[in-house]
Amino acid sequence: MSAVAVVTDSTASIPETLLEELNIQTVAYYIHRGQEVLRDLVTIQRDEFLDWLSSATFLPTTASPGPGDYVEMYKDLISRGFRQIISIHMTSKGSGAYQAATVAQAMICDEMRDIQIEVVDTQNVSLCQGWMAIEAARSALAGLSLEEVLARVNRMIPITQMVQTADTLKYLYMGGRIGKAQRLVGSILNIKPLIGMKDGVIVALGQARSRTQAYNMMTEFVAEAVGKSKAKVAYVHAGAIDEVEKLKQLVENKVEVIESILAELSPALAVHTGPGTAGLCFYPVDR
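and the corresponding structure tokens:
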């Protein structure tokens, strides 16, 4: 067992096989669907949720876990023998998870002075957050100290990037998560918007007239960002596996990808992106 426990949230959208293999712990977001309160990937799964969302007449709301949810997770890990924990969360500008985890950190560390907890604001979302949790877990399993694991994650924050496209921005707009991509909302219907993250908020990266053009633009975006380096890429989607397979082929014809992941967004993220979303989360590596 590693000395450092790794905690992240369901929104990291890490495939279950990797969660188990790397012993990554996740805390579930909340989805409020009318009077119904669901727990992301606990009481609602991807396929069921997307089937409902595609014909929904209203948009559910989401909420981050509260301090009590993180206290419960941290105490469970402590009861299992861990004394060091790194807790990795999506951008604090788009969710309250980082703040809630920070409150929980203070509560635990005030009560148990021998416990170390580091809480990280990734300034990103989805498998960008996921990549940081994955690499943190690998570092922990390799025997690195909490300080070394934290340094590894902090090095990834400025170089890990997301780009995605969808048929519409209506879900982001309705959910109030549109950020600086607001100007794309009024685009004509056959425009495919490209969005990413910068400084923790959603930004517009461009627009295309077809998915094929959008995927070509995304491929060029990755190639330019990676340069002569190799890359690790997570291809993410919401009910659009065939689309990300097309994107994967384009990217890997252009960029040397040394590790790739195919992953579907968790329901708490799919609320805001909508069915049919396809994109990628990547970062350059030197080896």
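(Above: one complete record from the training split.) The domain at 161-285 is CATH 3.30.1180.10 (Hypothetical Protein Tm841; Chain: A;domain 3).
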